Amino acid sequence: MKYQVSLVVALALTVALAGPAGAQPVPPVLDRPASIGLQGGFSAGSGDAGGSIGLTLAFDATDRIGAEVRGIGMRRGSGSMGFEATGTMLFTIANGPKASPYAAIGGGVYHAGFDMDNAAMFGALGSQFGPGTMMVPVRGTSSFMMGSGTAFNGSQMPAFYANRLGQMAVPANGRWGMRSFTDPALTVGGGIRFDVTRRFYVRPDVRALVVFGDGDRLTLTTMTFALGYRF
User: Fold this and answer.
1) So where are the chain's domains?
2) Which ranges of the chain have pLDDT less than 70?
3) CATH code for the structural domain at 2-114+181-230
4) Alpha carbons 145 and 135: distance in angstroms, whole number
5) What is the pLDDT of residues 97-122, one digit of tens each?
6) Bridge partner list, 204
7) Which residues on adjacent β-strands are paired with residue 210?
8) Is 179 helix (H, G, I), strand (E, B) or coil?
9) DSSP string, 37-102
């Protein structure tokens, strides 16, 4: 819940800061409608946070409507990572001489990967339970019920993913390997584009990424700062 609140507050500040820009609308520069951007920042959600970096390709169809494709790699805490690949529509709220706030909505996929041998995942499980011990996820939590009747609570994997692992057995060699998930996602948010020159711009941006899977959902908040170049 706190991440959704952070998103709303950040969006409100974004629009407020751009207020002076909307008071003096001017036609945007559309002679170079395509742009590429390098962005970095961080993501947070489900108790984890980490840095992110990615690329954005954008195209301004009109002075108010644009389209964007972006890919962002995320560090999601110890032993986990994520990658967002989304296509988004951008709607300019107000065209200013230098700053233009916008809203964004779109969709795509989110890929999550987990190093199950990491101590934050199942790395410490083998020393507590023997090979072949059956484990069943406890719905709504990151815990597992073991065949002996005891519970394993050491995993930091979000319940959204842990519940989808199903029944497993402790491997004989103690090595779990990697587990990955690719799910559909909805993205919504906004930001402000600041035109430094006719070719270069900077763009702070905040969005909620809602990931869907197995009748459940996971919400992440991404905050990035992009440097873009028009061509």
Assistant:
1) 2-114+181-230, 117-176
2) 1-30, 126
3) 2.40.160.20
4) 5
5) 899 999 999 999 999 999 999 988 98
6) 225
7) 186, 219
8) strand
9) EEEEEEEEETTEEEEEEEEEEEEESSSSEEEEEEEEEEE-STTEEEEEEEEEEEEES---SSEEEE
